[in-house]
Each structure stands twice: as C-alpha cells, then as structure tokens.
Amino acid sequence: MRTQVGIIGAGPAGLLLSHLLHLRGIESVVLERRSREYVERRVRAGVLEQGTVDTLVEAGVGERMKREGLPHHGIELRYGGAGHRIAFERLVPGRAITVYGQQEVVKDLIAARLAAGGDVRFEVDDVAVHDIDTDRPYLTFGGERLDCDVIAGCDGFHGVSRPSIPEGVLTEYQRDYPFAWLGILAKVKPSSEELIYSRTERGFALHSMRTPEISRFYLQVAPDEDLAAWPDERIWAELRARLETVPGFTLATGEIVERGITPMRGFVAEPMQYGRLFLAGDAAHIVPPTGAKGLNLAVADVRVLTEALARLFADGSTEALDGYSTACLPRVWRAQHFSWWMTTLLHTFESDDAYARRLQTSYLDYVTSSDAAGTTLAENYVGLPYQEET
Ligand code: FAD
Ligand code: DHB
Fold this sequence. Notes:
Elements: E1 5-8, H1 12-23, E2 28-31, H2 36-41, E3 47-48, H3 50-58, H4 63-68, E4 70-72, E5 74-79, E6 82-87, H5 88-91, E7 97-99, H6 102-115, E8 119-121, E9 128-130, E10 138-141, E11 144-147, E12 150-153, H7 161-164, E13 171-187, E14 196-200, E15 203-211, E16 214-221, H8 232-243, E17 255-270, E18 273-274, E19 277-279, E20 285-286, H9 294-315, H10 319-322, H11 324-346, H12 354-369, H13 371-382
Parallel strand pairs: 1-2, 1-12, 2-8, 5-14, 12-19
Antiparallel strand pairs: 3-7, 4-7, 5-6, 9-10, 10-11, 13-16, 13-17, 14-15, 15-16, 17-20, 18-19
Bound molecules: flavin-adenine dinucleotide and 3,4-dihydroxybenzoic acid.
C-alpha cells in the first residue's frame, strides 16, 4: 500500500492535516490506535482561538461550529473578593475566542474526511515508523506496510513517532508543575456568561462551559491526586469555595457526566523533525492548560506543515519542509511562555512565601487595571497572528 503522507494519530492535528492536504489534492492515510467512538468522546480542550476558528471555516469544516460554538469577547479574572473583566472587544478589537469542545472539532473533521472518501483507520495496533532518514519512509501496522513520501507524527505526547527519532537528535525542554487539574463536565446551565479564572488561597478554579446546558470546571489539585477521593459532593463544595468569592455569585450544580485528572507540564522537543518525519501538535510540545493553547498550537503547526508539503508535492522543493521546525518554534515558545505565565499568575504554589503571594497579587492588579498589561494577556489569549500574516 502506498500514499503520499502517512499520518499517525487521529486527534485534531492528524485529522486537520489530512483534511487540509486533501484540499490541496494530496493523499494521506491516517492511522489511529483508538476507536472512532473513543476519540469522538474524549473530553479535552474547549477554547478556540480566532485563527483556529478562521482556519476551520476556511477549510469548510466550520458550519456546525458557527451554529453551536459560543463566541466570547472577554474572560473574568476573579481574585481578592472581586471579578475583573479582560475585555477583548476593547483591547483586541475584532478578535475573540469561540468555546466549542475539542471532541466536536474531531467529530466534524472525521465526518468531513469520510464524506470525501478519506482513509482514516481506527483501532490500528503496533504502528511503527521505518527508514525516516531516507526518501522512502514507511509505516508498518497489524501486519501491513504503508509506503509514504513523508510521515507526520500527530500521535500526541505518548505516541511512537517522537521516540522513533534516534537518540541525540532532539533536545527536550521540560517543566513539571507541582499540581494537576481535576476537570469535570456537568449537566448544568453555566453560572456565568464568560469564563472565570479564579485565584484563591485554596487553589485555582476555572469555570468554563460547552453549551447553554453544559458546564465545564477545573480545580487545581495535588499532582498525585486520586480521583476516588473526590466524590461529587466534595467537588461541588470545593468549586463553591473557590468560585463563590464575590458578592452575589452563586454556583449552580448538576449531574457530573465526566471527570478526569490532567498533569500539568510544559514540554518542547527541538527540532520538530528528523529526515522525512515531521512532528505536529502534542507529539512535539505540550503546555499547562491554563492558557488554553494546546489544541490551538496543534492547528498552527498543521497550517505550516500543509504549506510545506504543498510545496514539496508541487515542484519537489524541500526548502519549506527543511524550515518547518524553525517556522513553528517561535509560536511554540510564545505559547510556552504565556501558559507558564498564566499558570504562575493564578495557581497556589506550596513553595510560595508571603512575598511571592504579594507579587502575584500585584501582577494581577496590573493586568486588570492597565490596558497595556491587559492587552498582553488578551492578544495572547485570542491568539497572535500566524507567522505568515505578520
Ligand atoms: P492528541 O489529541 O493527543 O491526538 C493524538 C492521537 O494519536 C490520539 O487520538 C491518540 O489516540 C493517537 N495515538 C497515540 N499513539 C498512537 C499510536 N502509537 N498509534 C496510532 N495512534 C496513536 N488543552 C487545552 O487547551 N485545555 C484543556 O483543558 C486541555 N485538557 C487536556 C486534557 C488531557 C487529558 C490531555 C491529554 C490534553 C489536554 N489538552 C488541553 C491539550 C489538548 O487537548 C491537546 O493539545 C490536543 O489534543 C493536541 O492535539 P493533537 O492532535 O496534537 O494530539
Ligand atoms: C477550557 C480549558 C482550558 O484549559 C482553559 O484555559 C479554558 C477553558 C475548557 O475546557 O473549556
């Protein structure tokens, strides 16, 4: 079997790459370890940058998102007994975010690929990459062989592609945080129109949403936290304690339909390529979720990779592909910094003394009172322009 681009992983990165390549007349095969049901139900990110929304709309996969997604023009930072709005419409006019679940993006992309006759294979075991240092790389899986011109490693942080790169090629940068996020999805109308990022002495909490009937919440918890130690009543009590911190705000509660714990880590592998293997999305880098950047960064990588592959298949030129990692890394590191900054601004670090806590408050006061500082947050949050637009 043969294709032009062999793609490992049917997450947002792999599926969007396959779709964008198809629009350019380039063939691909997507190999995914999990079932279709599993990837369509996996609850993860929910905040789409303006550029992500525009990318999906321009690619013809934004219809349902435009109907069902929730455009937001601001977020609230809640601390010290008051809420402070970061007003995107004033600070970054014309740019906003859209709240639309990652699994909905995945569903829309799978439907588009299958409708166009795309080859997306689920429950594929034992994918392995071979001969990536030649022009004839290939993939093996379940006794089959797929010859390719290029392989795209879109298989997330725990995938097989990054570890297939010979030792000594990659430099890995990593920061682990001394806490995790407990995330839940609940059948309850959101108690706020906009997202609330709440910093309290008990730890951080985030109120987000998915639809007018479904809310999403996160709680800062210990890094080794056991989900079994968090029965529903404890989750709601802790969310109340961390969100009902301003006069007149009450949190509505409801049935919890999904729950999970996510470790908090920043990680970058450089370069994001070796020979004919190109890493995109979480396979190359992850961020702590506070800045809502993970999914958006995967989209930015895939845009760059699509352009570079279009050049290769148009005239055999490898110049853009050779520059793939160099083109992606400035945005990757901007997102690393922003995610680290938002995390540091809003979480409780056990190692913090009273001095560090005062610094945190001072910075929050600055971000919420100065337009210059507020714009720094706003322009990163809604997403900086893509490199090709600057
Ligand atoms: P993924 O979505 O991880 O997709 C990779 C795909 O590859 C998966 O479908 C996987 O099953 C498949 N795969 C892996 N190994 C193999 C293999 N060997 N063979 C074949 N297929 C394979 N970001 C936020 O902004 N906010 C959040 O709240 C948030 N929560 C998160 C919670 C969790 C538990 C995780 C893991 C991530 C979260 N993220 C969040 C990050 C965001 O979801 C990711 O950045 C985004 O999913 C990246 O997309 P991707 O396609 O690169 O990787
Ligand atoms: C969501 C996740 C985030 O990491 C974030 O910063 C904001 C919202 C969400 O899942 O809705």
